[in-house]
């Protein structure tokens, strides 16, 4: 026999399942240890102590309203989380006693999410301790194989459990618990969805490269003559006017940092005989080619050039691009080649851009093939 309390079933030692012939006379060899039933007396089940809510309808109603109140507070806290997420400035600072200066945006999100989860837990615990069934149940062991009568009995027991949980009578608890649990999903899902940031739009299509812009060595700011670029040499370049402290002074720190993130280009001179792409030859100049350094995986700077293999390597996630074949991906998580910057030389022999990028730089995104966003000749 087994007894169940709080979902835990234990064997009743007074009625063990026999593993021998029950009709054989009980015997004990001399010196053998006494049987378990001889050493321990069955303590039986403790008397059931009813709770106030079991006998007093007013106490039960009061407990029900307390549970509903906790679930309602949880739901309101979840809604407050959503409001705070959009309404509070993420850079808002303030002071808390005993802590000092804090980011009030983070405090508001943490408090509302914590309160929402806390009230769900407290409501569930209070519901279980005051209204759910609290009686101990003794269950006789039965064969493992279930017959139709056993399945019917289980169905009746489940039905009894449903009725005894009083969910069919206390719709307020069921509704408030469902609302609290459903709304609590918002603080978990909203940061993931909204945290993806704004849609890129034209942001990744526009750079400071345009026709006639000189390629300047970063960070020295020196212009580059085509005659000075030897085979195998590598230059990290930026557009004229966007290099070093001069860019910060002229355009401001924020614009200079944005340009640094989007406009960086790597310039390499290859043997024209090993270049496989006709477009790569046409957009280069006598084997000199320029490609965006912004990796098409997650935007890390592709800054490692292997002179023997002519491969460009991204140090973040090891995406590898073949410079002899229009910087196509030959290894790693990146999914598309690095965009090429068309170049030529001006009247003084300096390398200049022959136009803007013909495709968006940086990571792939869902709008990149949308017609009309590039704003330049895409052929």
Automatic annotation (TrEMBL):
Subcellular location: Cell membrane
Biased segments, Basic and acidic residues type: 18-31, 51-60
InterPro entries on file: QcrA_N, Rieske_2Fe-2S, Rieske_2Fe-2S_sf, Rieske_Fe-S_prot
Gene Ontology MF, one: monooxygenase activity
Region feature Disordered, mapped onto this chain: 1-60
Its membrane topology: Multi-pass membrane protein
An annotated GO cellular component: plasma membrane
Sequence intervals crossing the membrane: 67-88, 104-125, 171-194
Keyword Iron: yes
Any one Pfam family match given in the protein's UniProt record, by short name: QcrA_N
Family affiliation: Belongs to the Rieske iron-sulfur protein family.
PANTHER family reported for this sequence: CYTOCHROME B-C1 COMPLEX SUBUNIT RIESKE, MITOCHONDRIAL
Biological role: Iron-sulfur subunit of the cytochrome bc1 complex, an essential component of the respiratory electron transport chain required for ATP synthesis. The bc1 complex catalyzes the oxidation of menaquinol and the reduction of cytochrome c in the respiratory chain. The bc1 complex operates through a Q-cycle mechanism that couples electron transfer to generation of the proton gradient that drives ATP synthesis.
Protein name: Cytochrome bc1 complex Rieske iron-sulfur subunit
Organism name: Serinicoccus hydrothermalis
């Amino acid at each position: 026999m087994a007894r169940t309390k709080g979902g835990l079933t234990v064997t009743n030692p007074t009625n063990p399942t026999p593993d021998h012939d029950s009709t054989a006379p009980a015997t004990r060899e001399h010196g053998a240890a006494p049987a378990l039933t001889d050493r321990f007396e069955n303590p039986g089940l403790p008397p059931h102590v009813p709770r106030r809510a079991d006998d007093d309808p007013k106490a039960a109603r009061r407990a029900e309203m307390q549970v509903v109140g906790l679930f309602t507070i949880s739901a309101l806290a979840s809604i407050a989380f959503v409001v705070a997420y959009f309404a509070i400035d993420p850079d808002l600072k303030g002071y808390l006693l005993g802590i000092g200066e804090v980011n009030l945006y983070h405090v508001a999100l943490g408090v509302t999410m914590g309160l929402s989860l806390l009230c769900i837990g407290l409501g569930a615990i209070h519901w279980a301790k005051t209204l759910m069934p609290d009686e101990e149940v003794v269950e006789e062991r039965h064969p493992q194989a279930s017959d139709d009568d056993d399945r019917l009995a289980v169905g009746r027991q489940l039905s009894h459990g449903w009725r005894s949980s009083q969910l069919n009578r206390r719709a307020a608890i069921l509704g408030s618990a469902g609302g609290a649990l459903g709304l609590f999903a918002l603080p978990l899902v909203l940061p993931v969805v909204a945290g993806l940031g704004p849609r890129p739009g034209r942001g990744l299509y526009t750079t400071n490269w345009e026709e006639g812009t000189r390629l300047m060595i970063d960070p020295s700011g020196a212009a580059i003559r085509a005659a000075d670029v030897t085979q195998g040499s590598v230059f990290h370049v930026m557009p004229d006017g966007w290099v070093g402290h001069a860019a910060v002074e002229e355009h401001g720190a924020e614009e200079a940092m944005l340009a640094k993130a989007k406009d960086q280009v790597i310039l390499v001179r290859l043997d024209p005989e090993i270049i496989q792409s006709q477009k790569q030859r046409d957009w280069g100049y006598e084997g000199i080619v320029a490609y965006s350094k912004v990796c098409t995986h997650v935007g890390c700077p592709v800054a490692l050039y292997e002179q023997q293999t002519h491969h460009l390597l991204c140090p973040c996630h090891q995406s590898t691009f073949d410079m002899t074949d229009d910087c196509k991906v030959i290894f790693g998580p990146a999914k598309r080649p690095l965009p090429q910057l068309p170049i030529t030389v001006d009247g003084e022999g300096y390398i200049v851009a022959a136009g803007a990028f013909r495709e968006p730089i940086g990571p792939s995104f869902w709008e990149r093939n949308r017609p009309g966003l590039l704003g330049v000749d895409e052929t």
